[in-house]
Design goal:
The longest helix is centred in the first third of the chain and has 12 residues. Strand 1 and strand 2 form a beta hairpin. Strands 6-5-4-7-8-10-9 form a 7-stranded mixed sheet, sandwiched between helices. A 3-stranded antiparallel sheet has the order 1-2-3, with no helix packed on it. The protein has a single domain, classed as Vaccinia Virus protein VP39 (Rossmann fold), CATH 3.40.50.150. It has 212 residues and is an alpha/beta fold. Helix content is 29%, strand content 28%.
């Protein structure tokens, strides 16, 4: 994983030469945060788990939408990404990691979801802004984020009415069916008109039981 600067303003994170995050092309990531936070409008003190830090743009957008009582735990696997967000990307993300509402954990977000599901401390939102997102062609049934068992764990980790918000590189019908079977009420949104076909899934934890 590499941090690159292109020109005076553009920062990019790349993996094996492929752009993972572009600081000037982040409309869908911002919209992910905005939609997830809008779903929590009735919560004065929401507890949010954000999987994936990137350049901190999704986190910055969430903080701009939330009040002082919100608490966001960010799970990021890579120590270098955290350093970049505190250093060269801090201007881009508004020094989001210094916000008192934020806790950063260098950890696998799947482990934190499992811990929440196993405890009584439920989350109001889980926001997954991860590389590629759900993609049927490359992910099996045991996928730790988007597979059937993973979605059941996410549902168990959420408080009643909580929301699972997922960024996806493109729409994935199989993922939508798995969300339904896991007991979520789901809508698929886009960041706006035109541009790439990035999808945003908003899945609410309903009261009905998951399907067998």
């Amino acid at each position: 994983m590499t941090l690159l600067r292109r020109g005076e303003r553009e920062l990019l994170i790349t993996i094996d030469g492929r752009v993972l995050m572009n600081g000037v092309a982040s409309r869908s990531e911002i919209r992910l945060a905005e939609l997830a936070c809008a779903a929590l409008a009735a919560h004065p003190t929401p507890r949010i788990l954000l999987g994936g830090l990137g350049l901190g743009i999704t986190l910055k957008a969430a903080l701009e939408c939330l009040g002082p009582g919100a608490r966001i735990t960010v799970a990021e696997l890579n120590h270098a990404v955290v350093r970049w967000c505190r250093g060269p990307a801090a201007d881009l993300n508004g020094s989001a990691l210094s916000d008192p509402r934020v806790e950063v954990r260098v950890a696998d977000v799947a482990d934190l979801i499992l811990a929440a599901a196993s405890s009584h401390a439920r989350l109001d939102a889980i926001v997954l802004d991860l590389y590629e997102g759900p993609h049927e062609a490359t992910q099996g049934r045991d996928d730790p984020f988007y597979g059937p068992e993973a979605l059941l764990r996410a549902r168990e980790a959420l408080a009643p009415g909580g929301v699972l918000a997922v960024w996806s590189e493109e729409p994935d019908r199989a993922f939508e069916r798995r969300l339904d079977r896991a007991g979520f009420r789901t809508e698929r949104r886009r960041a706006g008109k035109g541009g790439r076909r990035h999808a945003i899934y908003l899945a609410r934890a309903g009261q009905h039981r998951p399907r067998g």
